[in-house]
Design a protein that fits this description.
It is a single chain. By secondary structure, the protein is an all-alpha fold. It is built from four helices and no strands. It is globular and about 45 Å long. It starts with a helix and ends with a helix.
Length: 109
């Protein structure tokens, strides 16, 4: 599965590098298929969709986005959200639950 995620990242020009802590292009100890990176990739592809130069590219990108969400993010999102629900103590993490559900739901629709 990780190789499929990395292949999609390469296809759409997404680099899941952490941008904080001086890590540069490193992933730290997070795998490429970490849910945070996958959500960032969904946002990246959504931006590409919004700027698609023609209908053919638009449809291609929408299909990539939908397939990625169905085959990866949506497969385990509820498990991740269950853990966040159980342990969320701040308003930011509590708000993240609805945002993540909405992003994944809309990506697969």
């Amino acid at each position: 599965m990780t190789s499929q995620v990395e292949a999609l990242y390469a296809t759409v020009g997404f680099q899941p590098a952490l941008s904080t802590g001086g890590l540069g292009n490193k992933l730290g100890n997070l795998p490429p298929d970490h849910i945070g990176f996958e959500l960032r990739c969904i946002a990246h592809v959504a931006a590409l969709v919004a700027g698609a130069p023609n209908a053919r590219e638009y449809e291609h990108l929408v299909a990539l986005l939908r397939q990625f969400a169905i085959n990866h993010s949506a497969r385990f999102a509820e498990q991740v959200l269950a853990g966040v629900t159980e342990h969320a103590r701040t308003a930011v993490y509590q708000a993240l639950l609805g945002l993540m559900r909405g992003v994944v739901r809309d990506a697969v629709a």
